[in-house]
Amino acid sequence: MPTYRVKTPSGNFKVESEGELSDDEIMQLLPQDQAPAPAPESGGGYLERVGRRVGEAGEAAAGIPSAALDTLTGGSKGRLEAGLRLLRGIGSPIEILTSPVEGAVEYAATPYMSEDAARTAGSVSALPFTLGVGLLAKAGKLGQYGQQFAKVLGVGATDAVTQFKRDPQLR
Predict the structure, then answer these.
(1) Which of 20, 58, 107, 128 has its CA at 20 to 30 Å from residue 47's CA atom?
(2) What is the pLDDT of residues 40-69, one digit of tens each?
(3) Please, what's the b/e burial string for 13-29 (b: 16 or more CB within 10 A of its CB; e: otherwise)?
(4) Domain span at residue 107?
């Protein structure tokens, strides 16, 4: 029994039939007064999105040797593409650390945007997150684990309080 999912301007519908139907037959079977069926979530849940991002970062890290070689030799797609792959591979540990935030933003944005736009919003969300952690670390507002996290991310002055105490201008 085939099931057809139809996307129309009035919503998404699901049509079941005994046999194969043409497009015109499917459109005739669409209910006019029934509420649209919820569209299946193509990107998956939060954990699937975070897992996908961590997997992509892991693949980028594993591709560092080939990207470095392609940067020197030109590779099949050129030196610029190989250099960008190399940079992504080098930055993959940071990408893994920020993937829970990116996945959460992507998951939250999916009902309001297309899948591609939500994925882009998730990727861009790492910037304000990193900036916020850096500012909190610089202000000395993070606890011991927060300061270590900021140090791993490479943002903020994690020992800002001790630097301020030693600064002769602040005495």
Answers:
(1) 128
(2) 445 678 999 999 999 999 999 999 999 999
(3) bebeeeeeeeeeeeeee
(4) 46-123
Over residues 94-133, the pLDDT tens digits come to: 899 899 999 999 999 988 988 889 999 999 998 888 888 8
142 and 163 assigned to the same domain: yes
Looking at the structure, tell me whether residues 15 and 30 fall in a common domain. Answer: yes
| Neighbour count for residue 105 (Cβ, 10 Å) | 21
- State the Cα–Cα distance between residues 83 and 90, nearest whole angstrom: 11
Separation of CA 161 from chain center:
33
Beta carbons within 10 angstroms of residue 112's beta carbon = 9
Phi, psi at residue 15, to the nearest 5°? Answer: -120, 130
Residues 107 and 161 in one domain: no
Position 37 scores a pLDDT of 46
Regarding whether 91 and 51 lie in a shared domain, the answer is: yes
* 63 & 107 share domain: yes
